[in-house]
Write a structure and sequence with these properties.
The protein has 14 helices and 24 strands. The strands form 7 sheets. Strands 1, 2, 3, 6, 7, 11, 12, 13, 14 and 24 form a 10-stranded mixed β-sheet that branches. The chain has a 3-stranded antiparallel β-sheet with strand order 8-10-9. Helix 1 runs parallel beside helix 4, helix 1 packs parallel to helix 13 and helix 13 crosses helix 14. The protein is globular.
Length: 478
């Protein structure tokens, strides 16, 4: 809910913000009225104050928080889950792509995370963009992200979700969070919405788009999982078995007796495991990730689908007789929800034509990789159509303008809630690209505060010069 000057009061205490006094409809008593509970006026204690408040501790939020802190800002990072990392650690989405298929074009904070990851990160030499594609241990990276934020001096609060945005005089002044001891406020000078769903921005009244133009459908979601006790040698010795089981899966699915699966990946997973423990990205579901009850149902459905796969493989596939689920994603891998409208909008043309931008904060290169909003598991990555990707060896610029807006100058968004079309998001939603946004915005926030300017008015050439010093690959800026 957006709260404006008319219904909140900042109360000073000992020279600082001591409490927020908020009210919904203070003239009416508390109670249910036509499906609405009326909340009387209440004072909300201030939990923390900072120069930069980052809401969301996924990879985009971590990079924004660390980079702002490294450039002198006092930073608070709020994360709803017990550990940092977002989709990377909680949904087991554990691959970072950094190459335009000829050279590495994403460096900076992403490369630092790879280097700090140590034994938790390995190169995927068999991937088409080798050797700049890395797979990581989601559990181990939780510790790495803890270390990186601690070393940067970021104050981290896990278990907190920003549930309300306090706006006064055209600026975001605070976000409200629900704690174990009640609702509290976190106040700041600049806010970064890294929630993935654009919660802070939407609650502050910013406009957003949702889904594709044709029917409003958002990209399908995936339940990632890991299996153990697979026998690669047995599978390799009998390649015909994988084809037989794959055909059976398709037959049963088409008859309505087996769940959907990512068809393009399933045969490869069955026929060529390299290790006894394998990660799988092949369990699709579709729906509205902003609807809590629907998301609960979809998550349970996805867990059931995983065990349906495994039961069939154990019964039908030699080498999988002893296979067991070692790990399921704590969350579904969510690819799309709100896309906050910004100063610029990244679209399909900018991606496939490798368009360069004067306000670039880094490079992106991934194709327009749309996972079917109907939940079939089909993805345009499988098609590999030239019109869906930049040319080999070329990349597009990620502009600062997709992270900023015209209404609230001290609020930026990073990650998959940035300003894009449905198609543009299908490229820039990758974690490595989201971390580019985080580093650019976090650095901009700190430098702008030091200069006494709003982010949109800060000298972008100075920002770009600093990003290059910090290891960001940033070339061909017009």
């Amino acid at each position: 809910m957006k709260t404006t000057r008319r219904n909140f009061i900042l109360t000073a205490a000992s020279g600082s913000l001591g409490a927020l006094a908020t009210t919904a409809q203070a003239a009416k008593p508390s109670g249910k009225q036509s499906g609405v509970i009326v909340i009387p006026e209440r004072k909300v204690p201030v939990l923390a104050e900072a120069d930069v408040v980052v809401c969301g501790g996924g990879t985009a939020g971590i990079s924004a928080a660390c980079c702002a802190a490294r450039h002198g800002a006092k930073v608070v990072l709020l994360e709803r889950w017990p550990s940092l990392g977002g989709m990377a650690t909680n949904a087991l989405v554990n691959i970072w792509h950094t190459s335009d298929r000829k050279k590495q074009v994403i460096r900076g904070f992403v490369q630092e995370a790879v280097d700090r990851g140590g034994r938790f990160v390995r190169r995927m030499a068999h991937f088409p963009t080798k050797p700049e594609t890395h797979e990581f241990d989601s559990t181990g990276m939780r510790v790495v992200f803890d270390r990186m934020t601690k070393d940067a001096g970021v104050r981290v609060f896990c278990g907190l979700t920003a549930v309300e945005s306090i706006v006064e005089d055209g600026r975001l002044r605070a976000v409200l969070v629900d704690t174990k001891t009640g609702r509290k406020a976190v106040c700041g000078k600049i806010f970064v919405d890294a929630t993935g769903d654009g919660d802070v921005a939407a609650n502050a009244g910013l406009l957003f788009d949702f889904g594709r133009v044709s029917d409003g459908g958002v990209q399908g979601m995936t339940m990632m999982f890991r299996l153990r006790d697979i026998a690669p040698a047995v599978i390799k010795a009998h390649p015909e078995d994988a084809k037989r089981v794959f055909a059976l899966m398709k037959k049963l699915r088409d008859e309505g007796r087996f769940p959907q699966f990512l068809e393009a990946a399933a045969l490869s997973y069955l026929s060529s495991p390299r290790d006894p423990v394998v990660s799988y990205n092949m369990c699709p579901v579709a729906g509205n990730p902003l609807h809590e009850e629907e998301l609960t149902r979809l998550t349970a459905q996805a867990r059931e689908q995983v065990y349906r796969y495994v039961d069939l493989w154990r019964e039908q596939m030699p080498g999988f007789e002893e296979a067991e689920v070692e790990q399921l994603g704590f969350s579904l891998g969510i690819r799309e929800s709100r896309r906050i409208r910004g100063l610029k909008t990244l679209d399909a043309r900018m991606v496939v034509k490798a368009v360069k931008q004067p306000d670039a904060i880094g490079h992106g290169f991934w194709m327009i990789d749309i996972h079917d909003p109907k939940g079939t598991g089909h993805t345009t990555w499988v098609d590999q159509k030239r019109e869906m990707m930049p040319p080999v060896g070329e990349s597009y610029h990620i502009p600062l303008g997709i992270c900023l807006n015209a209404k609230l100058p001290n609020l930026a968004v990073v990650g998959r809630c940035a300003s894009t079309t449905h198609e543009g998001l299908a490229s820039v939603r990758l974690q490595s690209h989201c971390m580019v946004m985080g580093q650019g915005v976090g650095t901009c926030a700190a430098l702008a505060l030091n200069a006494g300017a709003d982010m949109a008015k800060f000298d972008v050439r100075r920002l770009q010069a600093q990003l290059r010093k910090d290891g960001v690959y940033l070339e061909d800026v017009p």
